[in-house]
């Protein structure tokens, strides 16, 4: 399967999942938390508060890992995503990612504490059932 074909399968998995496990590195140790998942193509966007530990951790180390497709129940498709993250306060990106359920944490898309983690995959491991993993490379 070509990288482009695999990319389409990966996008379909991203479309089907609203939550992911997001891991950063803090003092050489992993930190993992659940986050709401947004994406455009293979670029992933995570909404967060600029005052969170994850934002500070990304300043020191932009390498992240995301797990998609396992929500406590067996899943037919799982993604393991190795990526690099940047923190963005770009207004047009904040508006694009904004959803009304974010009102629980932010006043609106122009809240100064609302930022977007822009995740650019380096490598994605696509696992379907018991088949051997397939690897997508940037």
Automatic annotation (TrEMBL):
Pfam families: PNPOx_N (PF01243)
InterPro entries named among the record's database cross-references: Pyridox_Oxase_N, Split_barrel_FMN-bd, Stress-Dev_Protein
SUPFAM superfamilies from the UniProt entry: FMN-binding split barrel
Domain Pyridoxamine 5'-phosphate oxidase N-terminal per the UniProt entry, residue ranges: 7-127
Protein name in the entry: General stress protein
Originating species: Paenibacillus lutrae
């Amino acid at each position: 399967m070509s990288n482009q074909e695999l990319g389409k399968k990966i996008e379909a998995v991203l479309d089907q999942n609203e939550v992911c496990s997001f891991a950063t590195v803090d003092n050489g140790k992993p930190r993992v938390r659940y986050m709401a998942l947004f994406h455009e193509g293979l670029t992933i966007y995570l909404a967060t508060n600029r005052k969170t530990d994850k934002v500070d951790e990304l300043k020191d180390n932009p390498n992240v890992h995301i797990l998609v497709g396992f929500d406590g129940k067996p899943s037919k498709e799982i993604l393991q995503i190795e990526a690099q993250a940047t923190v963005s306060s770009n207004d047009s990106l904040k508006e694009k990612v904004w959803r009304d359920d974010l009102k629980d944490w932010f006043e609106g898309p122009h809240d100064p504490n609302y930022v977007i983690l822009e995740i650019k995959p380096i490598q994605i491991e696509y696992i379907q059932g018991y088949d051997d993993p397939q690897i997508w490379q940037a």
